[in-house]
Amino acid sequence: MVNPEITIDAVVKQFRTGALALQDITLNVDKGEFVSLLGPSGCGKSTLLRIVSGLTAPSSGTVTVNGITPMDARDLISFIFQDATLLPWRTVEENVGLGLELEHVPLAARQKTVSKMLELVGLIHVAQRYPRQLSGGMKMRVSIARALVSRPRILLLDEPFAALDEMSRDRLNEELLRLYIEQLWTVLFVTHSVAEAVFLSTRIVILAPHPGRISHIVPIDLPWPRTAETRTSKAYEDQVASVSRLLRSVQTSTGEIE
Ligand code: ADP
Ligand code: MG
Question: Is the residue at 1 inside a domain?
């Protein structure tokens, strides 16, 4: 039997301003799933991710992560945001090792872990550089390496690649999938890009705005492993076309245009 790693049950989020960001969201994410949240701006994607991470409490409804509250499950979760906020005065290596330093992990052990993570994301050759000397894609990889240092089981990513050009994004998508397979993560991923969502996901959840709610859930059954080749397959193109159609129907029915 598959265990849900994340359970979201009848979650409502109303802000003090009165905005109903989420209305009655129910969704289970099984161990090892890669679920993307897709939908127009303002449909509550970030809010939902923040609730799952324990940063925000729902107004009603419940969320569990690995059977416990998101707050209690914090050690299992890594949250990666779009703007890779690296400390400019620290080298790549020092940025990635920051969490371990704060936990007083001795230098030798720290260096070993940091090197391993930098190797995983293909950045060992820039370990001594400063953030200003890196491209946007490299900064994003540093921020992924930094998140991996804590050995998360669950990854929450909020539009991590939105600011990158298409080629860098495609490359990072491929790297992320390689790591996902290797590390056996459960992933909840927010994106605006249909192509990205189809390429990465086992399921796509399409949300509609005002109030934020689930409008469609689409299983993506493209074969694994998925590589650059996958993007040239007919099955991939068909999935992108059908998810785009669903997303358009959500946008036109609510009068929202991105
Ligand atoms: P998305 O990430 O899908 O663009 P958000 O989760 O950021 O959407 O926002 C969902 C809705 O909730 C929007 O209408 C937004 O204006 C509102 N909202 C988000 N955060 C807050 C907040 N801290 N206070 C008040 N309203 C908020
Ligand atoms: Mg958002």
Answer: no
The residue nearest atom 26 of ligand 1, judged by CA position, is: 15
Q: Which residues pair with 187 in a beta bridge?
A: 34, 155
**Of 116, 117, 128, the residue nearest 92 (C-alpha):** 128
Which residue has its alpha carbon closest to ligand 1 atom 7? 46
Mean pLDDT of 57-72: 97
- pLDDT greater than 80 at residue 97: yes
Name the domain count of the chain: 1
Q: How confident is the model at residue 46 (pLDDT cuts 50, 70, 90)?
A: very high
Does 97 map to a domain? yes
Q: Whose CA is nearest to atom 10 of ligand 1?
A: 44
Q: Is the pLDDT of residue 60 over 90?
A: yes
Grouping H, G, I as helix, E, B as strand and the rest as coil, residue 144 is helix
For the CA of 207, the nearest atom of ligand 1: 3
Instruction: Decide if 237 is inside a domain.
Output: yes
Cα(117) to ligand 2 centroid in Å equals: 27
* pTM reported for the whole predicted model: 0.92
Residue 41, SS3? coil
Give the integer Cα–Cα distance in Å for 73 and 55: 12
Reported as a single tens digit per residue, the pLDDT across 217-240 is 999 999 999 999 999 999 999 999
Q: How far is CA 189 from the centre of its chain?
A: 3
